[in-house]
Amino acid sequence: MNSVSYLPFLVYIAGVLIVVGFMVGVTYFLGNRHKDRETDLPYESGIQSTGDARVRFSAKFYLVAMLFVIFDLEVVFIFAWAIAGKDLGWTGYGVVGVFVVILVIGLIYEWRVGALDWISTDRKYIRMKEVQK
Amino acid sequence: MITSAHTVLAALGVLLGVFTIAPGLIWLERRLLAVWQDRYGPNRVGPFGILQVVADMIKIFTKEDWVPPFADKPVFIIAPTIIMLSTLMSFAVVPVGPNIGVIDMNIGLLFFLAMSSMGAYSVVLAGWASNNKYSLLGGMRGASQMISYEVFMGLSLLGVVLMNGSFNLREIVLAQEGMWNVIPQFFGFLIFLLAGLAESHRLPLDVPEAESEIIAGFHSEYSGMKFGMFFVGEYIGVTLVSAMIATLFFGGWLGPWFPPIVWMLIKTFAFICLFILLRASLPRPRYDQLLSYGWKVMLPLAILNLMVTGAIVVATTG
Q: What CATH architecture is A7-132?
């Protein structure tokens, strides 16, 4: 591999930082300022805001984040094979095949358990809800 | 010394080019949407309304830069810079021509993926720092959507990496001399197109913003140029994804008759127009439909595409 000059890259980074810094900073000087009765209230569709937004939110978002960590990490391992896939031949393909099969089993399990559904349609879950009533 | 001055100028040229194309897209998008919706669009300021961009820019720079007193101020200010920085940094590895581009990185593709996933921080931090319930919802939606589609964005590119045996974008372009990657990697291309749409959270996949449901979502408390940065950042993201599709699947700068850079611009422009056409023609999916579509359809398809490509590549190289 040929040696790469990092000078243009550094100049580019500097240019990007200057432009972005300018965009953030300049309205502080150019923009007007006003203060009315409702200026400092959060904009929530014109409805009177109650409480702040530091509230609990659906655990489903957390579940998606966990699925992401699991699968993205496995993608990173496959990257290491993909770059050398031609040289490793069928041996490498077999090893990655086993890895992917395990990954797919995990995906099927999550699917069956209902982790991929935002609203659970599982009968057991619905019956449990009815019992709780 | 002359060569280093040349490359530095090329780097600044890329930056200038991005900052010409991205605001230009604001005008282009409004005009094209107008054409497809059978109306005029902006046509008053300058020839064909092209100076509308300048007028908008002057206006937005003189707007009040309101930082909410109830917000988390440092995070509120940092969030819009992250989306600009991450998309602009990704452009550093895009090869615009045989010798034009900011840096020729051996891990160009990985750098692109790393930078594009940084964009998720911008959305979730903006939504969190705004301290507004709709913004919080938008930020959470954005984070889930972007990280879900991140998974198979990486997987869809693995087919290209397998075929060319390199993360270097220049080598990937040169390897497409005989045949564009889109022909053997058609499913990879489709998956990447969709993932790119979700990553830049453009319509129809703009559920983090969804003005009719959660009033612009993560940036509803932003005003002035900070809002403008989210706006321009989105257009830079569209340009970036279009340029990456052209580079990875459509032979980048390769093409007859015209100079290489013209081909690169034509291909990028074609995909930008495709993105605008998608916006004009498709409705927004429901949020849970979007996520389950990603995990249940695109992820298995991406894995299948990878394993079939791997088998064919190994079999043919023998």
A: Up-down Bundle (1.20)
